[in-house]
Amino acid sequence: MATGRSPLTALPARVRRPRAGVFVDDRSLACAVVTGDSLVYFRHGADEGLGAGLKSEIEGRQLDVRRARVGLRRARVIVKAIELPAASARGDLAQMVGFELERHVPFSPDEMAWALCPLPGPKGGAVTFLVAACERRAVDQSLKALDEARLRPLSVTVASHDLPGLLARGPRPARTLWAHRVGATTDLIVLQQGRLRLSRTVTAAEPAALAAEAAATAAIVRWPAYDALWISGDDAPRFLDAPEISAAGVAPTAPPWAPRVSPLLVTLPAPDTGAGILALAVALGSRRPDLDLLPHEIRPRRLSAGYALTAGTAAIALVLAIALFAVGARREQRYLDRLSSAIRVLDADVRSVEQIRSEIATKKRLLSTISAAERGSLRPLPFLRELTETVPADAWISSLSADLRGVEISGQAGAANQLIPLLEATTWLDRVEFTSPVTRGRDKEQFRLKAAWEVGPHGPAQSGPVGATAELPRGTAGSPAPVAPPAPGSGPVRPRAAPGAPPAPGAAVPVGPGNAQVPPQVAPQTEGFAPVRDGAVEQQVAPAPEGQRESESQPTVQTHERRSWGSKGRSRGN
Q1: How many CA atoms lie within 13 A of 399 on its CB side?
Q2: Residue 350 CB burial class (10 angstroms; 0-12, 13-18, ≥19)
Q3: Does 551 score more than 60 pLDDT?
Q4: What's the pLDDT at 51?
Q5: Over the stretch 351-363, which tens digit does the pLDDT of each residue have?
Q6: Which of 72, 67, 59, 70 is CA-nearest to residue 19?
Q7: Where does 316-443 show beta strands of DSSP type E?
Q8: CA distance 230 to 269
Q9: What is the pTM of this model?
Q10: What is residue 106's three-state secondary structure?
């Protein structure tokens, strides 16, 4: 058993993960594991079983290996170039190749594992395929060894076909023969423009025999000559310095190894240089080898070129959609920021406008309240004015009480029964009737009557607004006289005597249309109002001085206001 270990600092990122290659010989296997920056190589014989030995080596070296590639020895695989007509190549290619392989392999198709790849050639002519075939038993033994070692197979190839993966990048000769020696056998690899064209395995123990086999291989592929001859593997220096090979016309040279591979080759054990190079080539081989003998049902899934193109297009479309969305969102965010800045500038004005709106709404509610109060309140002054003009000159009103349902009047008159038609003739009152029997005094009749509103407590349509100043007769009948409220604390209201008829001191002044007397004046709310009781407001004129005759006492007017309407009386056409 030979082992080797060396630093691997020039490996690209794609080989940073552990990559294992197993070269399976007739009675042994060689394994190369590339992990991180190191290379581990070992070779195990068949005395304990290939699978068990591989597992023990991996576990003993604590290698984190889960997958591996398998490379078969070239002598166990038949490699042929087969030409097929172009028409047959478009049909069932697998069936056509199977029929053709029956003439070249010594075992039946059912016991065969094979793979093929097209070779470049002229268009329109026959199609050439490179076919590799081997017994299925060889593949199954290799897979069994990996299964015992708990490794997942990635591919099964011919080990020498993976050698081009160790070369440096750059221009290569058009026609190249590569002779790789493992023990007493030599694998001849034919490369055209760096691509595999054909391979052979020969027994050439001497340089002269190797030169003859190289010439025969060039004749098989119909090359008049080859441009380069590379020799590698076991005992390679002896063949490189042999004059027999140089006499063929091309001086042999070592392969142009990649810079990342050269440090590894010098650390391989000398007796296993050929097998070690093949194991390393299998480990670093292509992820998609052209000739893969691994059964299709257990091959790892790989994206084809079409799938990769579709996935890339979808990814690009997704990125563009996300970018478009992000750009749109950014543009909208900038617009919202500008709007927010403008709103902050106008915020003070908006607050002022909202305050003004609030004040306007408050004033509107106040105005509505006032209007509602005006519509539901009494308007006594216009009523008193018409009542003053209607009552006869010999009639006196001692008290008057009014609310929303009607009015009650009490006083003295020469003929009380004449008051009913006069009061019903007004535009204010209706259904006038006595509430108590009329009593006869010295020279007057005491009466008490009530009446309903004909047009409501607001008065007729031509009456003024609530709180309008009532105009009473002044001087002569029909001349208006303004009514002024008495000053607070001025005592009872005294009617003013008409010119030319001064009343006696302390005598009551008669009220009538022919007089110029002022009717009893309603005291303002600040004087003479009783407290509010049950929604009624009571106004009362101060009583006459003590000692004055009942017939000459100062009339008292009471006004009651309630928030309800009485039934409307009948309407008369007069």
Answers
A1: 17
A2: exposed
A3: no
A4: 85
A5: 899 999 999 999 9
A6: 67
A7: 396-402, 406-413, 429-434, 439-440
A8: 21
A9: 0.55
A10: coil
